[in-house]
């Protein structure tokens, strides 16, 4: 079939472009998540136009002769200004989407060729990707991708929450950890705890089960401030709860993300308790406090959405008791860049 690959620069896209773009994204959404409402269009444009934080990104579109968008690809890697550049300087990320009626026509392969050429030139030796759909899994395996981790999107319906149990967890918190206090902040981490918070956040990210994923976090105060700006730029809020020990140390945290334009859902971000402070129910206490906060402050939210590695037994145990249920599975994969160069005859 005839098509062309063009670079997609959202900030330069004319107003008339976006209707065609939404035809593409909403068609894909109806296949991948048929029970979900379509994403807010204004929010989608805002997210597409927002700058990434210290991360080089290039996006491509596959367009037919009648100007129909039938595929999208994105790839990128950490820039030297990134706080995690040393940890991840050899890694690129890649994602490819092709509409159902246009698969098996070489579009995905052409996307991959263009991405791998640039990734190889940039001297990235590993390409990490993911998929939660059979078509994507088959495509990745065809080109020799190695699975790195199994995960899932898990959802909690607010109507299913056992609120009595949540209150029990909240009451048990001060009893098991009597000298611990809970603090919160919205969007902006207080300057006086910034360095300790990002240290704890980095530790919590990296102590999650990672399988054979090679990417690692290394967040500093400057990176956090840039992240906060991007969160604002895409129209989201980030609400954080932390636990503080008697000596002031941050021992645990949990966070949520919310976009008021998609007000029926809330996204649960990272939850973590530092190893030396475990065994006192801090994770349950924080999670229970957070869901009660959501109930009281966001009455229109119907569900909480999160992602977990299937090997993260501790967090899955808490989530299971809260009522989270698996919505769909997904996996991480990786390629050796040199292997793809050979397979694609580049």
Structure description:
Strand 9 (250-258) and strand 10 form a beta hairpin. The chain folds into two domains: 4-150 and 332-343, 3-Layer(aba) Sandwich (Aminopeptidase), CATH 3.40.630; 153-330, 3-Layer(aba) Sandwich (Aminopeptidase). It is built from eleven helices and twelve strands. It has helices at 17-32, 41-49, 85-88, 107-121, 134-142, 163-176, 194-206, 221-233, 282-297, 313-322, 337-343, and strands spanning 4-7, 55-63, 69-78, 91-98, 126-131, 146-157, 181-186, 237-244, 250-258, 265-273, 303-309, 325-336. Helices cover 36% and strands 29% of the residues. The model has no long low-confidence stretch (mean pLDDT 95). The protein has 346 residues and is of the alpha+beta class. Strands 1-2-3-4-5-12-6-11-10-9-8-7 form a twelve-stranded mixed β-sheet, sandwiched between helices. The radius of gyration is 21 Å and the shape is globular.
How are the SSEs placed, and which strands pair?
Blueprint: E1 4-7, H1 17-32, H2 41-49, E2 55-63, E3 69-78, H3 85-88, E4 91-98, H4 107-121, E5 126-131, H5 134-142, E6 146-157, H6 163-176, E7 181-186, H7 194-206, H8 221-233, E8 237-244, E9 250-258, E10 265-273, H9 282-297, E11 303-309, H10 313-322, E12 325-336, H11 337-343
Parallel strand pairs: 4-5, 10-11
Antiparallel strand pairs: 1-2, 2-3, 3-4, 5-12, 6-11, 6-12, 7-8, 8-9, 9-10
Helix pairs in contact: 4-11, 6-9
């Amino acid at each position: 079939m005839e098509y062309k690959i063009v670079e997609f620069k959202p900030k330069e896209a004319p107003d008339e472009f976006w209707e065609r773009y939404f035809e593409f994204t909403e068609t894909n959404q109806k296949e991948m998540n048929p029970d979900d409402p379509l994403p807010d269009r204004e929010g989608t444009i805002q997210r597409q136009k927002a700058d990434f934080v210290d991360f080089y990104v290039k996006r491509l579109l596959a367009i037919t002769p009648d100007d129909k968008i039938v595929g999208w690809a994105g790839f990128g890697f950490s820039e030297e200004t990134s706080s995690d550049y040393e940890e991840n300087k050899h890694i690129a990320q890649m994602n490819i989407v092709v509409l159902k009626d246009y698969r098996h026509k070489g579009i995905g392969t052409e996307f991959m060729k263009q991405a791998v050429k640039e990734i190889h030139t940039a001297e990235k030796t590993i390409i990490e990707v993911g998929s939660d759909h059979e078509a994507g899994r088959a495509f990745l395996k065809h080109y020799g991708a190695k699975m790195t981790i199994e995960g899932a999107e898990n959802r909690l319906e607010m109507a299913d929450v056992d609120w009595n149990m949540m209150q029990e967890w909240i009451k048990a918190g001060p009893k098991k950890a009597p000298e611990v206090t809970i603090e919160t902040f919205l969007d902006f981490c207080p300057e006086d705890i910034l360095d300790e918070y990002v240290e704890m956040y980095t530790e919590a990210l990296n102590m999650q089960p990672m399988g054979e994923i090679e990417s690692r976090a290394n967040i500093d105060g400057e990176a956090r401030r840039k992240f906060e700006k991007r969160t604002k730029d895409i129209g989201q809020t980030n609400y954080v709860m932390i636990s503080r020990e008697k000596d002031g140390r941050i021992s645990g945290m949990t966070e949520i993300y919310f976009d008021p334009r998609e007000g029926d859902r809330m996204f649960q971000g990272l939850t973590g308790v530092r190893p030396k402070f475990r065994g006192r129910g801090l994770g349950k206490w924080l999670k229970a406090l957070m869901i009660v906060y959501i109930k009281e402050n966001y009455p229109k939210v119907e569900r909480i959405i999160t992602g977990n590695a299937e090997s993260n037994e501790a967090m899955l145990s808490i989530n299971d008791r809260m009522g989270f249920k698996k919505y769909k599975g997904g996996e991480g994969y990786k390629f050796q860049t040199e292997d793809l160069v050979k397979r694609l005859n580049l």
